[in-house]
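Recall the central idea of this unit: under ordinary conditions, the amino acid sequence of a chain determines the structure it adopts. In this exercise we apply that idea directly, starting from the sequence alone.
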Amino acid sequence: MGHILQQKGKASLERVLAALLLPHKKLYEQRDQGTDQEVLFFSRVSTPERHCSLTGQQMAAIMNDEVFKVFTTHATIVLGKVLLMGPLTAYYRFSRGAFANEEDVAQKTAEDGKDGKKLLRTHPDVERVRRCHQNDLETAVPFVLVGLLYTLTGPELSSAQLHFRLFTGARLLHSISYLGALPQPCRALSWMLGMGINFSMVCRVLYTVLVL
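Accordingly, the structure predicted from this sequence is:
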């Protein structure tokens, strides 16, 4: 009798454990080229390897999303332009003979036997490039951060393309206007357009996920 009860208790415990370890189905909607597709993910309470596999599937789904692809393209273009401003500043410093640190002119002083401190000066062209670079950092970094959050809110592809294309075009026009000393309001309008796009994405993110 006791043996039978022990077997029944063991069977009951096995059923409870099996129920706890059954996969829980989670249904997600994935928007692909304007059509809703249902993607089924399974999560188990098991090993870390299973969680890593799920993470890989989710990351692959994100990388294949059209909105994310558009964002990645334009973010790379904008950041690439920001990176180019550093070498451009160095070029203007050497070509204009305007340096900011004593060690920068120490070798030139030893070679020419002249007072290198005369090269420790500012030049309008160098300062213009530096200001353009600073403005890029103030605008492009928020674009990348807010733009990433914006893509996670599931915007329409056409709306996302409009935001990203306008921002990229505005920043390119801003740099051309700044470095080429184009008359105002070319630079001001391009700056305001870029800032407006950033604020538009901020509003979209807050409207979608605001929790206080």
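Residues 1-6, 8-13, 15-54 have pLDDT under 50 and may be disordered.
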